[in-house]
Design brief:
Layout (H helix, E strand, L loop, with lengths): L2 H4 L4 H14 L5 H12 L5 H10 L6 H25 L4 E2 L2 E2 L1 H4 L2 H19 L5 H24 L7 H26 L4 H28 L2 H4 L5 H4 L5 H6 L3 H10 L9 H10 L2 H20 L6 H14 L4
Antiparallel strand pairs: 1-2
């Protein structure tokens, strides 16, 4: 079953969110408007808004309230991607030119800042102090994660704990915030929204680890960017760390992977990583987090949203390797 089919009963609300996204990114500056629209039209799974809506189904679901939270979380995600592409010097995302490639780094940074500010403006309409505190803490951690990613580029002496801490901040916390803030917006009791936070965290970890696996196992057509792009950009992910447990592979990676490496050399590194058993170990790591997410779900009240969260978790945690 395709991902969108799993939450098709939310289609009218998701369409409302899509419309609100387009309305929100309007700007007086023609350049900001074009760059923001370019980012929005690049597409995406809209996983964070979907998690907001599904979490809201555990409480008093009001689409007007839910919509503002869902759009704000998606805007924050979009802004982080625009900034990420500058940091990573990435020219493609989902097979389309990035903002920094289509315009320049300065335009990309201001566009990201603008989109982020729009998200905060929307959240200001939510009269729930706890929601604002959680979002603020999340943004602090996400920013620390971005800085840490810069520091960790081409740093081969990092360990698995460094990697897990980084992806927690970069990916998992925004997904967990989507689940928790959606629940809080719907006045869900504390014990439930805290469990939804944990569910989102575990799913987010599995999601990112799976993404990092796919960077080595999928085609450029599926990825929308060249295979091995993460490693080319100096991002040391789980498959690389597991592969480097083999001293010979570690020496080869440290010798060949650097800022000025020839992109054509990445294919030989990919083959080494695939043959090392690192992909299989990374899948086990992803499954560990996925199973924790599914265990948390069992503690939540039974409803259609719970079943859908289970289906989505299994789908994004076990995408095609």
């Amino acid at each position: 079953m395709k991902l969108k089919m799993m939450y098709s009963f939310l289609n009218s609300d998701i369409n409302a969110i899509e419309k609100k996204l387009e309305e929100t990114i309007q700007a007086d500056s023609a350049l900001l408007k074009r760059a923001s629209l370019h980012t929005l039209q690049a597409g995406g799974k809209r996983i964070r808004p979907v998690f907001v809506l599904l979490a809201g189904k555990f409480g008093r679901y009001d689409i007007q309230e839910m919509k503002n939270v869902a759009v704000a979380l998606e805007l924050i995600h979009m802004a982080s991607l625009v900034h990420d592409d500058v940091i990573d010097d990435a020219d493609l995302r989902r097979g389309k030119p990035t903002v920094k490639a289509k315009w320049d780094n300065r335009t990309a940074m201001y566009t990201g800042d603008f989109i982020f500010a729009l998200a905060l403006e929307l959240m200001a309409e939510i009269n729930k102090p706890l929601a604002h505190k959680i979002l603020a803490n999340t943004m602090v951690e996400v920013t620390i994660g971005e800085i840490q990613q810069i520091k960790d580029k081409y740093r081969f002496d990092q360990n698995l704990r460094d990697y897990l801490r980084r992806i927690k901040r970069k990916t998992a916390l925004l997904i967990s915030a989507s689940c928790q803030l959606g629940a809080i917006a719907a006045d869900v009791e504390e014990s439930i929204h805290k469990k939804l936070y944990l569910f989102g965290y575990y799913v987010g970890m599995a999601f990112q680890i799976t993404d990092d696996i796919l960077d080595f196992t999928s085609s450029e057509e599926d990825l929308g960017k060249p295979a091995g792009s993460d490693l080319l950009q100096g991002n040391i992910t789980a498959p690389v760390l597991y592969a480097m447990e083999d001293v010979a592979i570690r020496i080869e990676i440290e010798k060949k992977v650097h800022e000025n490496m020839d992109p054509s050399e990445i294919q030989s590194i990919i083959m080494l990583i695939k043959k090392s058993g690192a992909i299989e170990k990374s899948i086990l790591l992803s499954d560990l987090y996925l199973n924790k997410a599914l265990q948390i779900l069992e503690e939540l009240p039974a409803n259609k949203a719970k079943k859908t969260l289970r289906d989505i978790a299994k789908f994004i945690g076990r995408r095609k390797y």
